[in-house]
Specification:
The structure is a homodimer. Chain A is mainly α. The first copy, chain A, has six helices and three strands; from the N terminus they run ααβααββαα. Chain A has a single domain, classed as Arc Repressor Mutant, subunit A, CATH 1.10.10.10. In chain A, strands 1-3-2 form a three-stranded antiparallel sheet. Chain A binds a DNA duplex (30 and 30 nucleotides) through α4.
Chain lengths: ~130, ~130
DNA sequence: GCCATATTGTTGCAAGTGCAACATTATGTG
DNA sequence: CACATAATGTTGCACTTGCAACAATATGGC
């Protein structure tokens, strides 16, 4: 229980710091980064919304709305899936790639300050290994 | 960065599980537990809202509203602070104590399944020690 | 092929959260 | 004491999220 409470608190604190820095830099929230990164990795093939859902732990309806916002911001586009009349395929736009790149140094800097600066490489490796099993 | 992403994901996943179980049991969300526990610890003396804020990482306005809800649910009471005309002192009610006690086994059970079952005692100690430094 | 069931995605509504502005009281500095 | 500044808490508004219901298509069993 102690471990869990610390996991909870440290994540909340660091998450807030990261979000705060992104906002201060006039950038969108962290979850946009995750989705943009996955979209970028999937290239021209794009991603089904359900795949975004699986990767980000978002609910279906939140993926739906987040993609709405990404589309609205010109960072991604939706097109009907060729092989599945229900779903849509989402692909990143050049502006989306640019946005992810703009977010990266801010994100990376915050994590460097809040995580990398507080534990050495060996410790981070141990932490990483333990968290993977959760 | 790997460590951070795993910290983020594992916390999100476990947090969702805990919240889901509480909801399924007809109980309020996890943050209520945190606040009720702190109030219970503070006994009849109660707590200032700013102290709740510090302990839970909530924003001031969210503390204000959460206390509204606790009061509305009959789990806590607010009275003006004797030595500070601005603030209020929050105390837990018997129903609040009962609610915290009702939440505990559900909370504990979820953490047992999601955390304790996946790492042994020595590993939990190491994890705990590392997270404390974040 | 037909029909029950599952999967994928969307949306109206209620509830929670962030932001900025505000009211009120404390604190400190001259 | 007077006044600028800080601290505490609240609230209107916009935005986000959860829930439940829904529409549309896919899948599997007969």
């Amino acid at each position: 229980m102690t471990a869990w409470v610390r996991l909870l608190r440290s994540q909340q604190r660091i998450f807030k710091t990261v979000e705060g820095r992104l906002k201060q830099a006039g950038l969108p929230p962290l979850v946009w980064y995750d989705v943009l990164l996955e979209l970028e990795r999937s290239g021209d093939a794009g991603l089904r919304q359900r795949d975004i859902q699986r990767h980000t732990l978002l609910e279906r309806y939140n993926v739906s709305r987040l993609v709405d916002r990404l589309e609205g911001a010109g960072l991604a586009t939706r097109r009907p899936a060729a092989d599945d009349g229900r779903g849509a395929v989402v692909t990143i736009s050049p502006a989306g790639v640019a946005m992810r790149q703009a977010m990266w140094p801010v994100y990376e800097g915050a994590v460097a300050d809040e995580v990398s600066a507080k534990l050495n490489d060996a410790e981070l490796k141990i932490l990483s290994g333990l968290l993977e099993r959760l």
